[in-house]
Amino acid sequence: MSGDSFEYLRQYLLGKGRREAIETIANRLDHVGSGTWAALQTRYVLALLDDANQRIEQLDKVWKAVERHDSGDGGPEQVEQAIAKHEPRDERPPYFL
Q1: pLDDT over 90 (residue 86)
Q2: Among 17, 49, 67, 77, which residue's beta carbon has the most beta carbons within 10 A?
Q3: Is residue 51 part of a domain?
C-alpha cells in the first residue's frame, strides 16, 4: 500500500466543504413550504457527519500506524501501541443503526 492511502481516505471522509454544502441545502429546505421534514433529516445527517468526523480524529493515529505497518515502515506492535494510546477508556462502544 502506498504512503498516503489512508490519508486520502481520511480527507475523503472529512470532505472539506461538504458539510457547508449540506448545511446550505438544509437552510434552503427551511424556506420551501413542505421542506421541514427534509430539512430536519438533512440536519440529522449533519449530526451523523459531525460524529463520524470526531471518530475519524480519534482513529487518525491508529490508521497512520496501520499504514506504516502495511508499507513496511512499522510493525504490528506500533499498531497495538497506537490503539492502546488513543482508545478512549470512558466511552461506550457505539451502537450501529
Answers
A1: no
A2: 67
A3: yes
- Give the total number of structural domains in the chain: 1
> Is 31 inside any structural domain?
yes
Determine phi and psi for 4, rounding to 5 degrees.
-125, 25
Is residue 56 a contact partner of residue 14, using CB atoms and an 8 Å limit?
yes
Max Cα–Cα distance, the chain, nearest Å: 57
**Does some domain include residue 4?**
no
Residue (of 43, 55, 41) closest to 13 by Cα position: 55
Residue 40: give the domain boundaries. 18-86
Is residue 10 assigned to a domain? Answer: no
How far is it, in rounded angstroms, from Cα 91 to Cα 96? 15
| pTM tops 0.70, yes or no | no
> How many CB atoms neighbour CB 6 within 10 A?
20
Alpha helix (H) residue ranges in the chain: 5-14, 18-30, 36-71, 76-86
